[in-house]
Write a structure and sequence with these properties.
By secondary structure, the protein is of the alpha/beta class. 17% of the residues lie in helices and 29% in strands. The protein has two domains: 62 residues, 2,3-Dihydroxybiphenyl 1,2-Dioxygenase, domain 1 (Roll), CATH 3.10.180.10; 57 residues, Roll (2,3-Dihydroxybiphenyl 1,2-Dioxygenase, domain 1), CATH 3.10.180.
Length: 152
């Protein structure tokens, strides 16, 4: 086993939290509907839009959503960008999935909402010692998860 060189990286704890996550989307309206109306995230508008993105938002090239903990999800409109495979379960991406946490008592309701909206489910619900989860795809084939801690 080779030994790694001594790290000169950031001190543990220097990175405080996820600031934002950016996705390329092929159909902005479908993605805006999905993140706002199916997942229930708040879309940033007016003064809430980051100053660096105002012009892109006005042009319909970017939409911004925020989770209750303040993580921003940026959607970048890329209509000509095709996934490497039409079946999202076979598409290669360097990211695996984005997981949203939900209260255990709301988990079953979230699963039903995904099913009622005919969201493509990859697998689940699954139950593990760490809680329950369901994996599904957004309109552009990105794998998402809704998960909860075990009920006490």
């Amino acid at each position: 086993m080779s030994q790694l060189p001594k790290s000169t990286g950031l001190k543990l704890g220097s990175l405080r939290q996820v600031h934002h996550i950016a996705f390329n989307v092929k159909d902005m309206e479908a993605s805006r509907h999905f993140y706002a109306h199916i997942l229930g995230l708040k879309e940033l508008t007016g003064e809430e839009v980051p100053k660096t993105l105002v012009k892109l938002v006005e042009q319909g090239k970017v939409a911004n959503f925020v989770t209750p903990d303040g993580t921003v999800i940026d959607l970048f409109y890329e209509p000509d960008l095709s996934p490497p495979h039409s079946d999202p379960s076979k598409a290669f991406t360097r990211a695996n999935h984005l997981a949203f946490d939900i209260a255990p008592q709301l988990f079953n309701q979230a699963v039903e909402i995904l099913k009622q909206n005919q969201v493509a489910i990859d697998h689940g619900p699954v139950t593990r010692p760490t809680g329950r989860g369901i994996y599904f795809y957004d309109p552009d084939g990105f794998l998402l998860e809704i998960r909860c801690d075990p009920e006490l």
